[in-house]
Every structure is written in structure tokens, then in C-alpha cells.
Amino acid sequence: MAWQWKHGVASLVTTNQCPGELQMTSGHNENKETVPRIEPTATYRTLGVCLSPSGQTDESFSILREQAISFATSIIGSHLTQFKSYWSDIIYFIPKICYHLPLLTLNLKQCEILMSIVLQALLPKLHFNKNTAREIIHGPEDYGGIGLPHLYTYQGLQNWHSS
To answer: Are 154 and 110 in contact (CB under 8 A)?
Structure first.
């Protein structure tokens, strides 16, 4: 990555603006291999999370959205009980999505979109109206809420714990 400064503001430069090549050897092999370069705005997958050096989350959000749709579709078509539907969200969906969150910076709107996709499928299984106030859905059980975790809260907690 390379930066270009204009009037005290840094911006990432493209591979065309800053050409270069990195070659490395591996172990006892003395043959040099060129490491492929990607644009700073491109997204690449590493250990299951799609990252972009520039911090853009559009492609990562798109992948998470597809996972939310897949989960919601499987919930709608299932014969899971109320209890099992609730726990499928807590034990399967939330950890699957939260794995990505410490490395991304999703905004509240993106988290709301992911949550609404899942809640549209999950709430009828839990015998709640899809228009139930989100304060009840995400509120603590001690105060009459359902206690379903919200991704935006998880993202903040995970980022706080990792610092």
C-alpha cells in the first residue's frame, strides 16, 4: 500500500500510480515468486473474512447479507419449534456473522438490514408479530424483552474486547 498526501489528507494510490513488484522465496527453494498485488479498494478473503485495505465494507456486507438470506430461508421452510428457532439464531446465526465483526466496521444501517432479514423469518416462529418494537426484541428478558442480540451491539462489544 502507498499513500498520496494532498493538503494534509492521505489517500491510497492505485497499483498503476505506484508500480512495484515483491518477490519472495519459500523455505529452501531459491526460486523467487512474485506476490500478486491487488488494488487497495479490492476485497479479498482471508480466513473466512473478506477485507479491503481501504476499509470498504460493501462486498463484505453483500456476503453477510447473502448468509442472512440463506439462514432466513432455511428458518421459514423449517418445522423447528419456537424453542429451537430461538436457539438456532443464538447458537448458529449470531456466531457465524459475529466472526466477521471485529475485522469490519459495519454501520448501524447495515446491521439493521441484516437483522431485519433474519427477524422477518424468525419472529413468526417465535409467535411475535414482525412489527413488534425492536426494543422488545433486543431488550433484556429481565425487563420483558426477548433478549435477541443485535449485531451492532455485538460489533461494539467485540471491538472493545479486542482492544
So the answer is: no
